[in-house]
Amino acid sequence: MTIDQQASRASGRDEPRPVNTLSRRSFLRAGAAAGGGLVLSLSLPFASSQAGAAADDVFAPNAFVRIQSDGQIILTMPYVEMGQGTYTSIPMLIAEELEVDLQQVRLEHAPPNEKLYANPLLGVQRTGNSNAIRGSWQPLRQAGAIARTMLVWAAARRWNVDPASCRAQSGEVFHTPTRRSIKYGELAADAARMPVPESVTLKRPQDFKLIGAPAKRLDTPAKVNGTAVFGIDVRPFGVKIATLAQSPVFGGRVKRVDDVAAKAVTGVRQIVQLDDAIAVVADHMGAAKKGLEALVIEWDDGPHAELTTDAIAAELEQATLKSGAVAEHIGDVDRAVASAITKVEATYQLPFLAHATMEPMNCTVHVRKDGCEIWVGTQSLAEAHKAAAEASGLPLDKVVVHNHLIGGGFGRRLEWDGIVRAVQIANHVDGPVKVVWTREEDIQHDMYRPMFLHRLSAGLDAKGMPIAWHNRYAGSSVLARSLPAAFNSGLDPDTTEGAIDLVYNLPNLHVEYVQVEPPGIPTAFWRGVGPSRNVFATESFIDELAAATNQDPVAYRLALLGNTPRAKAVLELAAQKAGWGEKLPPGVGRGVSVQNAFATYMAQVAEIEVAKDSTVRVRRVVCAVDCGIVVNPDTVEAQIQGGVMFGITAALYGNITVKNGRVEQTNFDDYQILRMNEAPNVEVHIVQSQELPGGIGEAGTSCIAPAVVNAIFAATGKRLRRLPIDTAALKRRA
User: Considering the entire predicted model, what is its pTM?
Assistant: First the structure.
C-alpha cells in the first residue's frame, strides 16, 4: 500500500446538513476517467445536501474509488490513520464486494472538503468517535458491489453472453462455460459506459472471504522500515525548525522579552514574538531549544493568575446541588425513593487529562504572498483548512493542506489550535518552517479532557435491587464549543453517553447535566470521550449498590440485564473466562464493569494486586466484546488492548492540576504513563454477532477504570471515588 500526498481542493464554508436517506442516484455516479478507467464516486450517509442535489455534471460525493486501466483500485480515504487500523479494515469492505485482493487497493489521503468527505456520523470531516467502520459499512460495500456488477456487465457485452453466466473473482471476470477471463483493468473503460444498476445484492456474512478474517495491517511495513511519512517527518526544501514558549497562565500575554542571548546562539535565525507566545526559529531543533532557554521573558499573567483545580472542583460540586438539563427521565424517582428500604449516595470526581501523544505536536507551514502550504497530521482536515486560511489572511483556494499519518491522536489532533499557531509564526518567516512543541509545552498547553463530578443516589427495595436512580453531574461540554449545532437545550450526545440509556433495567431514573466551563482552561475530546467519564461513575455506583446489600457484583448486574441480552452475554463470557468466584490470594481482587458505548457492548474483569505499600498493580484484564459484525478481528483485539492500557494509565496516574493559573505537570516524570513492566495481560474474547458494526477504538478505554477501582474494593474493602487512584488514601484507611 502506498499513500500519496495530494494538493488540497478548496472547499466552501457552507455547513454540511445531514440527510437520512441514500438513494441510488445520489450514491453513485459512473463515468470515464482520464486514461480510460472507471471512476466510482461514493457518497456516504449524512453527506452535504447541496452535493446530493447538484447537477449531474458537477455532483461531487464524499469519497472516490478509481479503477485504473492497470487494474489498480485507488480509494481516497476520508479518514486519517493514527494507529487504529482503518487503513486496512476500510479497504477490506470494498475489496470484499469488489472481489479483489486487499493488496490491490491503494489509498490516498482525502483533501479538505466537507462537501465531499464529511464524516457520515458527524456531518463534518473528522476522524474520531470510533465511527469510521460504522459509517463506511454499508456505502463502501455497496460501492464495491456496484462496481463489480458493472464490470461483469461490461465483460458479458464484450463476449455477447448472459451476465448471469459470468462471475468476478480475484480482480477478473470469468465466463464459466467457455473458461474465458479478462482483468478489471482491461474492462474499466467499457464498464464506465455501463448503466448504474438500480440495486445490487450484497454478500451474506457466511459468504465473506475477507471480512471477519484476520488481516495483517497494510501500513505496518512502511512504519517498520521507516518509509511511512508522519507530519513530523516532512522536510520541504529550505525548512527551518521552530519551537515556542506560550504564556504559562491561560489567557496571559507577553509583557517584555530580552532576546539578545537567544539571538547569539549558533543556528538561531529569528525570534518571532506574538501576543501570548515567543517562537525561536533555527536551523535545527537543538538550536531552537537552546535559543528558547536563553530568552528572558516577562509575562502578564492576566485574569486567571490565581486559578486552581481545587477551586474548579468546588464549583462543580456546588453546581450539582442545583438543577440541570434533564437528559433522561423514567418513572417517578421521588416516589420510589420514599418507599425504598435502603438509600445509597456517592459522589465521583474525574480530573483534567492531557493527551500526551507520542508524536510531538507539530505543523510545517510555508506562507507566501500568493499562497500557503501546510503539512500536518490532523483529525479535522477541513476545519484545519478553514482555520489556516483565516490565520494566513488568504482565501481558501490559496491554502493547500497535506494530511499525513498521525503518531497518536487520542482526540488532540481533532483540534486545530496548533495549526493556527504555526501559521501565525510562519507569517513572519521567509520560507517553510516546522513548528515543534516540546513535551513540556505540549502538556502544559494541551486542550484537556474536562474535569467532571457526578452526584448519584439510589433507593433499593427489600431484595436490594434498585427501584430509583438519580444522577446529577457537572462539567464542560466540548461539543458546545467545537460543534455548537450538537448542543441543544443544555445537552449533547458526548456529555450524556454512558450516563443515560443504561444497560440495566431501572424502573425509575432521573439524570441531569449541568454545564460548567472552567475559566481559561481549554477542554477537548480525549480517547473514550464522554463514556470515559460517565461509565466510571455509573459502574462504580452499581458496584456500590451490590456491596450495600452484600450481593455478588456479577450476579447483581446479571439480575438487572434481562432486557439487554447482548450486555448479559458479554458479562457472562467475561466472568467465565476470568474465573470469577475462584479464590484469590490476600491483597488480590477482581472487579467488573459493563457498558454499551459506541454501539458496542463490552464487559471487563480486572484482576489487581495491592502491595503492602498500597501501590496498585493491574495483573490481568479479561474483556468480552460484542461489536457486531467484525471486519478485522486482529484490529479489534489490538484496539481493545491499546484502549485498556490507555485507560489504566489514566486510572493509576492521569491527573492535570492547576496552581496559580499554571499546569503543574511538565513531562512523563510527573505525568506518568504505564510502563512496559506494569502492563497486564489483556485477554480479548469476541462474541460472534450479526448486528451492525459498532465502534471499538475507544470502548476499551472507557470500560477499564471502574473495573480497576471495583477490584481494589474487592481486595481491600476500600471504596475509591476519585481518579487517579490515591494510594496514600489506601494507606490512611488501612
Answer: 0.91
